[in-house]
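EI: anyone free to look at a 414-residue chain?
SC: sure, send it
EI:
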Amino acid sequence: MTQPAQLGRYDVVAEIGRGAMGVVYRAVDPMLERTVAIKTINMALDPGEMEHYEKRFTIEARAAGGLNHPNIVIIYDIGRSGDLAYMAMEYLEGRELKELITGNEITPERALDIAALVADGLAYAHAHEVVHRDVKPANIMILKDGRVKITDFGIARMRTADVRTQTGVVLGSPRYLSPEQVLGKRCDARADTFSLGVILYEMVTGQAPFNGIDVNSLMFQIVNFTPPPPSSVNPALPAMLDLIIAKALAKNAEDRYAGIAELAADLRACRQQGVAATPTTVTAATTAPRMIPDPTDPFADTLPSSRADDSTLPDSGVADTLPSRGLAKGFDSMAATMRLAVQTGAVTDPDALAATFGVSRHDIDNMVIASDTLPPQEPPVQPQLAPGWSLRDRQIFVVSVAAATVIGALILIL
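SC: here you go
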């Protein structure tokens, strides 16, 4: 497509990218003398498809245009010029998070900062009844000054949206989809939490939590497999981060964070406790087994080749034999919720926590990351012995036995 010289009042300067829906240009707004990014969609293509894309394009403009947050790209204007519908937005000078992850350029500390800022922006969107539904590294920009911006609300769902996805139709990038999206179910804000959990896992380990030789095997893993704890891939990571990511990646949306703002708070708490500021490059010796099916095995898409290294949960001191599906028992949502509550100081009474979750105090103690995270235990109560007999008691007992003996003898004689 030939580059237009002008779109509405905007003077087009250069093409800066192409997406599934159209081309993005760098342009200048002569009225305000500022550089903008112009996202376009060609309405002269297949009319059947374009009607759908135009509605999605409009939804993106409405969704992002109604949001005003430091971590969300700003939408300035929307219009149409000939066969092109366009949207003018904030021009961002920086790099996609995808590029930084690929280059192993993010330290764990920076990863926590980025994830917390993304969670802030998503929390604001959720509060305004907008769910992104396609959170991925390519839709997160890291600006030159360090700011973080969420872009592309193209498949966002709003309560007032007039475009509905057909049941069973999956929208979004497969690697970052939540299980409910994979299954074609209606999703809510907690789908964004799952997607951000996948991104955070990638940032701190340098590898994706779910892998597959094709889309089908990848989606099967998202629904059925639990990845190894991040600390088993990158030993420099704290156990608390394992719990945070485990809760974000819970298969059941009910087991995830109730609100993504809670995830942001836990990420900042983990950051304050300290994280090793080493790059996320992982050596072969510390890399956990990747769940990539063997193409020679007809059942390889349902069973990982090996998950033996996941049989022991770090810091738990308890070795568990894993089922053949490859689930890491210490990396499940219930355990993460209980242990994270203690680790963050949200619960100071382990007995009350045990009662809340319907487990024993012994189970709670085994889930504690370090012994000093729990309040000191009370010493066990020693059994109290009854006091010994006094001299008077013994005399009464002897007399009673003698009297009983005499009476018994008289009964036998008579």
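EI: Residues 159-170, 277-332, 369-383 have pLDDT under 50 and may be disordered.
SC: 👍
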